[in-house]
């Protein structure tokens, strides 16, 4: 056994050489002890803080293939398995026997089960699961009994674990690339997954605080599932270790200084990520005990032991926090490629890792310094921010050449040309009617949605008006902060007699009205109580994509697949402004008012456009076809990769320079309209293109902290919601619906 010197993040406590390779054996490690095979049939027990002398256990007649620690009534137990026996050892009792001059002995609980590749004990250490071939044997850990056999996998079983919050549940994984959930009382299968990967599933771990479990495959894929009461597992997230590492390396090259990299490599020395499979050999959870507030909030961090090192993942954000490779951190580690891992939290807060060599016969005990890791996490988190921190609330005035300084030239009425006296006395053109206004024939009014209803009780009008005043007062009151979010349906309304898609909804700023865009090209305007008939606006020939209220609550903007953009007012059935095919080559996916209604911000294809506009509601009764409102293109921006824009978000309730745009290439780009350029880009924001972005735009019904306006949400199909911080361009949380909500 050789001792190795201490380094910054790793300390190799000891290393030993076995007489044959033990690369794929299940080793055992707990906060106080670790167990390694010795001379094939024996086991050596080392204290993590006192390596000499080890406790040697003898009793197996075959090669030891699996080991696992367990606890019961403050007693440390070790389970070991070979082809002949499965033995339970009481470690404290074995120490006493050795001190008294005897031989350490254990209790045989299983005989001739075949080659056992994995052992696990239930939380009470009363039952044991032994994986051998395609079967799982359930043994009594206290005495030898006939085992219960669980057999349903089509390939060798690689791992099995008891559910921490329900000891009657067992989850097993297999080389047939599926996992199964078993009822221990009846021996029945409660749930069986589909084939998850082309590679076998190798590891399994439970997250008790979230009622979830994680499984990993031989090609570096990770799946996180919920385990609800009905046992119908639902996928929460899927991660690829190689892709997470590539994204992590890109962030390091871009933003992290060389001195805070864990491997000490400089920015120019970072080698590209090699496209090799990273098998998930071991999964272990550890909560970071840090003095930094940002790290204290992380409660879903898991360590992944792979063949090339350790990876720390944050499941809330689906982000790789750091990787600690076996090669590159220090040069004198005895192991550079791992065959198996056994990980445990030490009593002092550090983490102990027992690792075997993939191609050699070495076994080493590594200690990870948690305090220095927490400090490294904090430094990396603060270092991954953008060069100049972005903020939704402006901290500087407008630049001279800013696109937001653009103004629309206002032209007054042209003066009448005076040619001569004869022209003034000549007969002027007169309309064909004798009135100043002509009643419309009704060809351009909105179609009637309901039949005529006679008024049978006129007195109800005064009652409803009083109710409306009362409801208005309720809407203007401040929303109580101690109330939970609404979860019960208040009203159910069918917007059309035929099946019609509701594509967009938005409340007005005061909460009194709701604008609704439909798939038949119409826009409906309801009051907030949904009690009266809606006002109908028809001007689109295809499905409406977006409806948006102005900050003044006077105008409603709508876009569709025409492509066309219309701006409506509540008391007119015709659009005040129409922008059509002559201005946009592709459909307008997203549009809104921007910069306190000064601009129209819209996305068409890969272009992000700012339009100045002037709205005039007056019309000439003779030339009704000619609109007096006008618009002018102020600025035009394009996505960096040329991809189409799927969603846009900007704050209109106060002055803000930041505009967010989601692309079809899975990126989110942040534009600074004050400088007129792209400020930063978030690559691989979701596994699919984000179909919606929304920022914290404030509300007149509640008060929020200034920092909360830098948060925004993104959503994508099959990838849930992600909460981002604009200042660091990193996710804060990965939001998934609860199992009962799916």
UniProtKB/TrEMBL annotation:
Entry keyword set: WD repeat
PROSITE patterns documented for this protein: WD_REPEATS_2, WD_REPEATS_REGION
Record keyword Transcription regulation present: no
A Pfam family matched in the record: WD40
Gene3D superfamilies, alphabetized: YVTN repeat-like/Quinoprotein amine dehydrogenase (2.130.10.10)
WD repeats: 57-92, 150-192, 537-578
Keyword field contains Zinc-finger: no
Signal peptide (from-to): none
PANTHER family: WD REPEAT-CONTAINING PROTEIN 27 (PTHR44525)
Name of the protein described by the UniProt record: WD repeat domain 27
